[in-house]
Amino acid sequence: MEMKLVLAEKPRVAARIARVLGARPLRRFGVTYFVGDGVVVAPASGHLVQYDYPEEVNRVWDYPAVLPLEGLVLRPVEGKRRYLRLLEALSSRAEEVVVATDLDAEGSAIGLELAEYLGWRRLLRAEFSSLSPRELREAFRRLRGFDYPRAFAGVVRQVLDLEWGANLTRALTRAGRRAGLRLLLSAGRVQTPTLKLVVDREREIRSFRPEPYYLAEATFESSSGTFKATAGPFKEKPALPRPGSSSRAKVTIRPSRVPPPPPFNGTDLQTVVARLTGLSPRAIADRSRGIAQRLYEEGYISYIGTSSRRWPRGWGRRDFERMVELIARYPPLSGLARWVLRNMRDKPVEGRADDPAHPAVHVTGAPRRLASPYREVYELVARRCLAALAPDCLQRGWKVTVKVGGLEFERAGVEVLEEGWRKVWPYDAPKSASPPAGDGEEVVLKSVRVVRKLTKPPPRYTPVSLIKRMEELGLGTKNTRPTIIDLLRRRGYIIVRRGRIYPTELGEMIVDLLSKHVPDITSPSITAMLERGMYEIEVGKLSHSEFLERTLNQLRVIATKLKENEPSLSREMKSLLSSRGKSA
């Protein structure tokens, strides 16, 4: 009997797919799988096999170690052999394999790796962005051919991470051992330019010299009461007008319609939710145990690893109404959702950023109740969806200007006329206030003083602001950025104090050495170029084999240069350690 083997990325996802396909649970090798009519659903647990160097290359631990893809081996991931044994046993009965992993480069690569390792030949793809029963049923009704370009992009990323990381880490660690430093000194195509961002910001702060400037702060009296206004900044102390002076206020008013923000993409989900909840970006979006990842696996929100701020293609008004009706079934937000249903805008707001596989993060299910912190994350996703469907906020910005004694004092504010979408997304809303004086009204200067201020250096990065900067520069992906920051911390290159990121002496030394000997490694430009290449592979615009050959040749040049400079690298490392008072 012909049987389809359905590969899910994780056990919880396999269970949800099995319910839709009407498959019943069985257990083998300590793993639960599901059997139905002509179908068996089996889970992976992320990557079950991974590309690695042959044993002889790992045993010698030398560099340059730059091998083509066909020179690498697929090796089982430690601790996951039971999943592999199950898939191997089930493969013998399968006519076709349906890859139903996450629809991104990494998920597709999981399917391609297993196909190569287990000898699968006939591959199909189930494409879905949520685990709602409706979307899963539709995905299995319209199975597609396997997405090889997307899978190749994932494989290329693994190979580059392996070979760049191995060569740079071996170079630094061997130089460190010659200098008497018994540590694993890692480097990589993403972690090293990210570390340099932190080091550069710290040095900018250290070298910053504050400069004084002056503000004139005044209190005026109008028919409505007293209000404060400010003049400046000034390089020198200004001459102040005498209290008791009067002048006529000029009031400028600009009405505006403020549209709502778009729905979240994967980076927004990490950064905005982290800022509003105090959770770390990794706690929110980690692919193995993140809060938002669990909400996705439970079918409450769509796929979180998306770059898109756009709604699902082809959605019409009824689709948006269904989503809002779902949110209305969640008791804490039911009132707001019903308000949005009554006041839904004609065209939902969305952003420009798109994703070849997934729409923006949106609600796909309604829990009866959720425990903290799942509740907070779900409600922020739901509120963001509701906001994008709600009316504009109507407000008027105003500025009161008073010229007196040669100085021009100003006071500005916002008066909210109709809160619109801010009713469901109240965060960062301006404080509503009306102008404290009328246009042309005579006001009296009650008091005035000069305040001396100092310019401030740029702030240190927080995990959230560093992730935003990494996104701007094309460093890493929405899935890997939080893990890169954690890796830098584990390596002892950075520390986080009171939410701010500081480089350690060790981290600064690594940046100094690599910046001198192989500056390309520390620059975001080469990593951003590699990321663009992998995106073009994913969308079918670039050959993965040609791209790999070109970039590995580039790595070979860099690794060879490091090997030639290893003695001087070691001497400089020893000197830097000594000068910074750090014993080896």
Name some characteristics of this structure.
584 residues; alpha+beta; 6-stranded antiparallel β-sheet; flat; 17 strands
Give a brief description.
By secondary structure, the chain is α+β, with helices and mostly antiparallel strands.
Notes on the structure:
- The chain is α+β, with helices and mostly antiparallel strands and 584 residues long.
- 42% of the residues lie in helices and 20% in strands.
- The chain contains 20 helices and 17 strands.
- The protein has helices at residues 11-21, 55-60, 81-91, 105-118, 133-141, 148-178, 191-207, 266-277, 281-285, 291-297, 317-328, 334-342, 374-389, 463-473, 481-490, 505-517, 519-522, 524-538, 544-564, 566-579, and strands at residues 4-8, 24-28, 31-36, 39-43, 49-52, 73-76, 96-100, 123-125, 144-145, 212-222, 225-234, 246-258, 393-404, 407-418, 442-454, 494-497, 500-503.
- Strands 2-3-4-1-7-8-9 form a 7-stranded mixed sheet, with helices on both faces. It has a 6-stranded antiparallel sheet with strand order 11-10-15-12-13-14, with no helix packed on it. Strands 5-6 form a two-stranded antiparallel ribbon.
- α7 packs across α16 (505-517) and α8 (266-277) runs antiparallel to α14 (463-473).
- It is flat, with a radius of gyration of 29 Å.
- The termini are far apart.
